[in-house]
Write a structure and sequence with these properties.
Blueprint (H helix, E strand, L loop, with lengths): L3 H25 L9 H5 L4 E2 L6 E2 L7 E5 H6 L15 E5 L10 E5 L2 E2 L11 E5 L2 E3 L12 E8 L13 E7 L7 E9 L3 E11 L4 E12 L3 E2 L5 E2 L2 E15 L2 E14 L4 E6 L13 H11 L14 H4 L31 E18 L2 E19 L8 E22 L4 E22 L2 E23 L4 E18 L2 E5 L1 H4 L4 H6 L12 E17 L4 E12 L2 E2 L23 E2 L2 E13 L5 E13 L2 E5 L4 E5 L1 E16 L3 E17 L17 E9 L1 E3 L2 E12 L2 E2 L9 E2 L2 E12 L4 E8 L7 E6 L5 E6 L4 E9 L1
Parallel strand pairs: 7-10
Antiparallel strand pairs: 1-2, 3-9, 4-5, 5-6, 7-8, 9-10, 11-12, 11-45, 12-13, 13-16, 14-15, 16-17, 17-19, 18-44, 19-20, 20-21, 21-22, 22-23, 23-24, 23-25, 24-26, 26-27, 27-30, 28-29, 30-31, 31-34, 32-33, 34-35, 35-36, 36-38, 37-38, 38-41, 39-40, 41-42, 42-45, 43-44
Amino acid sequence: MFSDRCHESVIRRYARHLVFLAALGGCCSATAQTSGGSVSVLSEEITVTARRREESLDDLPLSVTAFTGVSLEARGVERIGDLGHLSPNVTFQNNPSFGGSGNVASIYIRGIGSKEFTPTTDPSVGLYMDGVYIARSVGAILDLLDFERVEILRGPQGTLFGRNTIGGAVSITVVKPHDEFAASFSMTGGTDSRFDAKGSVNLPLSERLFAKVTAATFNQDGYVNRVDGIDLGEDDTNAARLDVRWLPSDSVTVDWSLDWTKDSENGPAMSLIDIRFGPATIDPSTPPFVFFNNVAATIGGAVPNPLPPGPPPPECATAAAPLSANPLCYDYRYVTGINGPNAGTAPAFSHTTVWGTALNVSWDITDQLELRSITAFRELNSEFSRDGDHSPLTISQFYDSLDQQQLSEELQLLGKSFDDRLNWIVGLYWFQEDGLNVNLLDFIISSFRSGGYFDNSSKAIFAQGTYDLTDRLHLTAGLRWTEDEKKFLPDQAIYTLNPAMAGYLSPPQQFIFQPGTPILPSIEKTLKESQATPMVNLSFDWSEALMTYVSYSEGFKSGGFTQRVLPPLIPGITCSPVPEDCIPGFDPEFVTVYEAGFRYVSPDSKIRASGAVYHTDYEDLQISVFTSVAPVFKNAGGASIDGFELEGQFALGSATFVESSVGYTDAGYDEIDPSTHVDITNELERISKWSLNAGLTHDLFLGNYVLTPRVDWSYRSKLYNDAFNAPQLTQGSYSLMNASLTLRDADRHYSVALGVTNLSDEKYLISGVFGDAFSSYEGLYDRGRQWYLRLNWSH
């Protein structure tokens, strides 16, 4: 465990590193030639649309981190999931959870996020592509195809974005077609037979019609090997995108897009970390699967009466005993270490196909008035399966399928009034999604079907305006009204009861586990909620170089349903006699955020700095906990989150560029619901108290070529991967170092880059899974050190 003193030591070393990098850059900077260099591009002003209008990031009175396509290319970043190590107070993980999808986005910003993929819950951080909200986290680790920029917005979003989000938003903007022919192509090879290829062609079809086609393939072998020859954690992704821009008149712009992505993989590279053996007593609501398996293996079959309290015989299943020769025992022989071999035999696959189309229309009605429409449809089809016990035994095996369709419409009216002193926007938003999520589970006791049909909708009206009280003082205020509706129709039943296990269950348990027993009543349950969420922001321009601001905002996330339940909830027997009351749900959660920040740009634009300090009151927060066989959502109580971000960019001369950031998040429970079994002293999950990052880029001009070495360093302090703060699922503090060397021509038509990521070969824990009934701890670890060689060509 890192003490505060240790953290202070890290920060002091971090500061020394920055001083050293700055000194190195200063001594090596060139002053003559800058054409084709990376520094001139990285130093450019970034234009963002975080407030739904184009403006300089330097003028934005919000906590936003923005990356251009060029800056992420310089870091070797091709997938959005890599942004977590580049942004302060942001955690961006691939979270496979139970089902075994190899592509599930789990995003936390300032300690607020979600890791569940089921459609009866909502993400806490919104993901947008060209203004279109992507509702489901499955398939949301997006490949960055020909994108212009990525913006990470911290805090509640609602008075500007179509779909309200409580923790923040990640907004991706794609490069639009234009009126000149252009083409680009890149190939990347690297560790574990990695081969990536991307190509893009921009075609002017007429004076007012342009099209752009982009296609890519990403391939890499897995890094956890199953004993049956299957590699886990591999990449096999193909993606394509078509963009069309039509200018029917000087005042109207029509953008249409069609995107498609397909993943066909063997699932996440999970490792078995630890096993929790027999309990002192058997809790009927949490049947210990390992306990049952090992007693049956030792005794040699079923017993006629329920088991007495106590652990199973030591020759099979205690942690201290040597590995048993009995092949039916489940023990430490299957704990093979980080990224070690996997003995699972259940089907392992992760197949996801996502496609979508969007129509963005912008009409400049007058010089002071603009109307925008964003119409979008998206469809997701995914199925995935994995072996949760990592053994040839049938203790816990999972299969999921998720079919989802979403349709949305957003209208925005933007204008300027009072001699341009007031910039305002009024919007209407409508969103609807439906589909079917099936969870098939094969446990040692029984096999059963979980999940069901879902139908979610959201309607909202929002408005925001910024008024220049003086030339320096600016007041922004906004308000949103949201109405959410969720419908859930369970489709769940027991399939089989293992005859060998029947003797271990009491007669009432045997009754409710009979094949055909509904797990939840097959009746549709509806949840309706509405909420108003305001925001106020006051900013002051002290000079052309310095701006400060204070803000107040509120956010909320609607409640939902817990769809994975066991044992069955039978009306009048194991739950309320009212069938609808037997379908478990949870309530909305709310945040109130107070923030103060600044932005600074030096007169020569060589130095850019920004920072924010914030306090969040988090009420009725929704957490995922194991109180039975499956994770359930509960409203835990209240929490407080305090922290800050500080980011800086420094151009030292014309050939050296230094970037750095530091984030701090201090989160803790103020009150806790005892039914969650979470201790009030526990830390909130998926939060690193400290997040630091630094990067150095230097251009060496060699005639008609530019050689650019780059080094990036990041640090994350300890992080808990579950609400119970299980030691087995805790990732200690760690640092990552990446380095690359790029050679390009002065006109930036072609380049070759050689890079290494994770130089120290850190095998850090990305995410973890534990369930009381499963009795096993699983973890997804990083692949470790990787090299890559990339060739780029553009015209």
